[in-house]
Design goal:
The structure is a homodimer.
Chain A (H helix, E strand, L loop, with lengths): L5 E8 L5 H12 L2 E3 L1 H9 L3 H11 L4 H15 L10 H18 L2 E5 L3 H8 L4 E9 L2 H12 L3 H23 L11 E4 L5 H14 L9 H11 L2
Parallel strand pairs in A: 1-3, 1-4, 2-3, 4-5
Helix pairs in contact in A: 1-9, 2-3, 4-5, 5-6, 7-8
Chain lengths: 233, 233
Amino acid sequence: MTNKNNLVITIGRQYGSGGRITGKNLAKELGIHFYDEEILKLTSEKSAIGETFFRLADEKAGNNILYKILDHVKPQLRKPSLDGNMVSPENLFRFQSEVIRSLAEEESACIIAGRCADYILSEAEMENVTLVRLFVYADMPTRIQRVMEVDKVDVKEAVRRIKKIDKERKDYYFYYAGKDWMDMTNYDLAINTSEIDLEQTAEVIKDYLRLKGYQPEEIAGSEKSEEEKESKP
Amino acid sequence: MTNKNNLVITIGRQYGSGGRITGKNLAKELGIHFYDEEILKLTSEKSAIGETFFRLADEKAGNNILYKILDHVKPQLRKPSLDGNMVSPENLFRFQSEVIRSLAEEESACIIAGRCADYILSEAEMENVTLVRLFVYADMPTRIQRVMEVDKVDVKEAVRRIKKIDKERKDYYFYYAGKDWMDMTNYDLAINTSEIDLEQTAEVIKDYLRLKGYQPEEIAGSEKSEEEKESKP
């Protein structure tokens, strides 16, 4: 890797824009972890934190990094200086912020979708982390088409989901980050997927990473070499 | 050129973001024409249209394409079906729209900064034109720094110019396009120049053009070959 900093790619995305799928496929191609909103969201949806911890770990089977992080942040959560209500949305957000910062600290490279990760890591100003904040969007016809195909629903339901989920994301972002989710100035690169397909979208991202000094074929390099080291006697 | 369509790159940009300079340098590198707001703006600032035509032509010395276009649109402007007030802002906008559409029609490739060109050409839906709509922006510290360096002014004056000019551009865009200038959904790619320099910004654009089927080293190809043909006996 040309750049020695940890690399964190955050992806904000309109529902149906293909941002999540692009992020997931790209992470797989690069050999790095992908953390998406749906997984992290469990922490704010479940009042039983213990169970959520396990579910989180379970859905990321073989991902030791999460266990490490959970051990690290658990005591933090129990500090009485934190809000008395352990499971208040604000407290869960603080927990998630801890998780996100720890991921950035521990992983040589990863992709995080949603969850205000762009905001949390911008604020953290971690010197050893290169942050690439992406936003993926598309026009309504494109998004309706994608939601119909992926979710197997009709036009009406696709429109309903797009409006509902985007409103939730916008409200969530405004509540915690205090900024407009759709404001491009929150991001380093905003990509419209109406005129390009998802493979091309991944190419745009990889080209951008190259510019930032990260060769896609080497991004997972340091992790792999550690694994190799471990397997040696 | 892999893609046989004419290529028009429009660049909307915040003042001090470096969008104009990037566009200008890129056009030079690609061997294509660059049209910026300041030149086109003359048409709306000058009430003497005839003089403006000459100034336009004069500042694009050796650029035959503008002469051709002006010949084409002049009669249009004189049609009585158009607004009685030849030099009203709305009429000048219509004239400029004609010029922009003609540029898209005539030039195998060009870059246009500002002037709602993205909106005008989106609306025109020209089948033989591939439109790439870019927006370039940056955070305030970056923009203040650039304006101070380029305009040779102090911080206070830099901030004043940024606010004033961006407000003009925003108002202009809203007046003619009826949309928010800073809304990313108007554009195909929105690039933040706070963390990358202008050469890297140009690289982002060239990478995107490659994805759209335009090899940067071949973009001016068809024009050159016409010139070569002409120089032959």
